[in-house]
Amino acid sequence: MSGTSPDHPKQNLSAEEVAKLSTEEAMIAGAETDDVFIVHRRERFPIAGTKAEKRAERIVAGVFLLGFLAAVGFIVVFCGAVPYQWKLPGQGSQDFRYFTPLLGALLGLALGAIGIGTVLWAKWLLPEEEVVQDRHDGPVDSAQQMLTAATLVQGFHDTGIARRSMLKTTLGLAGGALAVVPLVALVGAMIKKPNRGQGQSLFHTLWASGVAVVDSEGKRIGPDDILPGGLMTVFPGVPGGVAAGDSPTLLIRLRPGQSIKARKGQASFQWEDFVAYSKICTHAGCPASLYEQQTGRLLCPCHQSQFQVLEDAKPVFGPATRSLPKLPLGVEVVDGTQYFVAKGDFPEAVGPAFWERP
Amino acid sequence: MTVTENNNGPTVASPRRYDKPRTPQGKAGKWADERLGLSGSLRSQLNKVFPDHWSFMMGEIALYSFVILILTGTFLTFFFDASMAEVRYNGSYIPLDGVEMSRAYASTLHISFDVRGGLVMRQIHHWAALLFMASMTVHMFRVFFTGAFRKPRELNWLIGLGLITLGLVEGFAGYSLPDDLLSGTGLRIAEAIMQSIPVIGSWVAFLVFGSKFPGTEIIGRLYIVHVLLVPGILAGLIGAHLALIVKQKHTDFPGPGKNETTVSGERMYPTYGLKAGGFFFMVFGICAALGGLAQINPVWLFGPYNPAQVSSGSQPDWYIGFLDGSTRLFPSWEIRLWSHTIPPLFWPTVVLPGILFTLAGAYPFLEAKLTKDRAHHNLLQRPRDVPVRTGLGAMAIAFYAVLLLSGGNDLIAKAFDISLNAMTWGGRIALMVAPPLAYAVAYRICLGLQRHDREVLEHGIETGIIKLLPNGEFIEVHQPLGPVDDHGHGQLQYAGSAVPKKMNRLGNPHTGKVRGFLWPVRESAEIEAELRALQAQEADRRERELTD
Questions:
Q1: B 85-124 residues with CB < 8 A to A
Q2: Which residue from A194, A354, A350, A195 is spatially nearest to B307, judged by alpha carbons?
Q3: Which of B50, B218, B449, B474 has the least CB density, counted as fewest CB within 10 Å?
Q4: Closest Cα partner for A317 from B410, B432, B431, B309?
Q5: Sequence ranges of the domains in chain A
Q6: B324-B325-B326-B328 Cα dihedral, nearest 10 degrees
């Protein structure tokens, strides 16, 4: 056991004195110069070359060797030993499925081996030490504090800001205005007046009177396309209608015997046993797409708002507060086939509510 | 190399002489020091002492996963195309052949299927992101429960909170980049949350998205936020966080030889540095193995984003889950005034996290104010010794846990065949009931543990030996920890550190702890004997020095 107690600091040594010390003594002296005291220091294997020491060294070396092999394995796999491109089953070797797992496992092994080897090295082979360092964070040195405060105060005084109120005011004006510049530059460049421009209104969708009802492929939909109890996601048959964020609409065919208690003034929105509601949940805008045809309930999978279609898509559970807007639905006959058309836009804003919405 | 007689025993060779550098490294060091004059400050950094406790490694994991994120993220930027322009996919993943999608989604597929090693990098990146958030959270728990945030470390608490907040933003931005069905749904909800802000909501949403949802801007904007803006701020804050640790030095648990004015442990060079460096590789290795072996975010199964579609059981990354949960639990309370609306979405997604993070930021100052504790603290507290704080922490964790579980309440309902509505109501009730319950239970456990510590200090350790007295009475033999008074009661005061409770935890006064993780380290008899001889020799030498 060596090291010195904090009571005997080896500080302020001259170069000649240091040169006389052994490396270990000089290291300890250096530490003590920094108020770091090695109170306990001992070789893990005080007798060099014991069986235990050799075993420890061999294990660490073995771990490093494993890391070497894994890294080589990674390189070999990466460079083409295993194919990496996706192939349809039956149309090529499925060995690519091993590519990513092998890379991960080998890289994990290569990194982990270096990590484990290094830590074992430190824990098993480095000298065991217990070291104490002064924190030097005792009570604040008030003289220091006052000297610094005086420097700050005097410097401030020298600038004369307190006396020269004209400079203070004008610099304040210039600086204050300049501080607004980046805000204006960024926010001003990005800002967009809501609801202005073609297709940008939160109150309107692409649906309008006479717009054809189409499916996601753009094909027109008629009453024969949906069986009783069925539903289909439909879109306005205009350019961009399928991709628009606000226009997806659920076209539902009621089961025989089911009927809907319509909202005031919206009784004519239904066409026979077909109703169409906005698919965009009035809570957070997810598509409310899980329909239970037995009970007529529609569930939004994001936050579990539930709408009762038979009560005109009224919210019956969960965080949504507004009914799904209803699309006025009509039918036109083209070449002897009936097709659905909208008789107008939704009478209210679709999707999540916002401040300007009544 | 010479063999010298020194205190470490005669057989250990001493290192090379240091005073006249002859090796290239030595000469380079001398060259640099003559120009930079850094040897003094370098040495004090090399000799810097780090205390040793497993719980101090959580923050390290966070730091290392940040480094892993930078490395893997840089790889991904070489192949990712943050554009919302529509393309028709024709890569090697046949099931999506010919499907219309954004370039962002197509390039994510490209990384996953056509870039050699791209998928493993993507998955390592995602796993490291989850680990980054998880380790920061657990690190925060550690700092909270041990009182490490107290004066003088309040600033670092605030920086840490800033790191967690920015980590949330960074994670969400990165998760949104592939523009797949799952992340697009997340963006849709994010837009609804922005819209829900009173007065300025639609303005905020149009500013961020550049148009009505989804527009064509958001992925490009999130990209620069994700790869430059937030990582830059994160790196700066991490630098400040670490600089403060270096300046203020690490806290430590009380124990033998521990006090407020010193820090004890291992020096940075070589021991702590080697261990920490090794630990970095271990963390990286685990992320790499997860990235290869555990599939995460298989965007090709979700398909490209389409506002008309959603998959059931949609889950965000775990660190967003608590907000998803709060949104699911919040009742349908909408405020409509003078033809304006404050949607219910506003409260659980804007107001609630605002309150939670403000409370967390204010906590160190509130605690100092309420306990009137203005002292400088370097020694940590055991959670049991501060039952109120521990109870408050348990309360916060219970609140968070209910929200997090509710974020997946549809999956729980499905797995356990419970009604979804029952899960929602259960969550609402649990959110009110679980936190106070957690407080009470944690508080009682703390008191129980405190009492047991006192009991052992007074009566000693239970030995498990039952003794039959001549009068027929059975007593259990206790091993006192120190000197006892006439009644056999211990005289030791509780010192804020762990009290040994098992016989094999006794002893080893030098380091105050038993070495070894799973099993105590035992020296071989040969070495023990040799050590005793060396110690005797040393004592002998000291004695001679004193008598001289």
A1: 92-95, 113-114, 116-117, 119-120, 123-124
A2: A350
A3: B474
A4: B410
A5: 51-133, 209-343
A6: 90
Reported pTM: 0.90
Q: Compute, in degrees rounded to 10, the torsion defined by CA atoms A39, A40, A41, A42.
A: 160
Architecture of the domain delimited by B53-306: Up-down Bundle (1.20)
E strands present in B185-306: 262-267
Return the pLDDT at A267. Answer: 82
Query: Cβ of B489: how many Cβ atoms within 10 Å?
Result: 12
Calpha distance B104→B80 (Å, rounded): 7
Residue B41 phi, psi dihedral angles, 5° rounding = -70, -30
How many Å lie between the alpha carbon of B109 and the closest alpha carbon of chain A?
Answer: 11
The secondary structure of B283-340 as a DSSP string is HHHHHHHHHHHS----HHHH-B--TT---TT----GGGHHHHHHHHHS----EEETTE
Contact A250, A231 (CB under 8 A): yes
Rounded-to-integer distance, Cα B135 and Cα B114, Å: 32
Longest CA–CA span in chain B (Å) reads 98
How many secondary structure helices (H) and strands (E) does chain A include? 6, 12
Taking only the tens place, the pLDDT of each residue in B293-349 is 999 999 999 999 988 888 877 789 999 999 999 999 999 898 988 889 999 999 999
Contact state of B263 with A135 under an 8 Å Cβ cutoff:
yes
Model confidence at A248: pLDDT above 80 = yes
| Range(s) within chain B of domains with CATH label 1.20.810.10 | 53-306
For residue B239, the tally of other CB atoms under 10 A from its CB is 11
SS3 state at B346: helix
Helix count (H) and strand count (E) of chain B? Answer: 19, 8
Give the distance from CA B536 to its chain's centroid.
Answer: 46
CATH number of A209-343: 2.102.10.10
Kindly state the tokens that stand for A294.
Answer: 């037995």
CB A307 within 8 A of CB A315: yes
Per-residue model confidence (pLDDT) at position B506: 64
Whole-number pLDDT of residue B442: 97
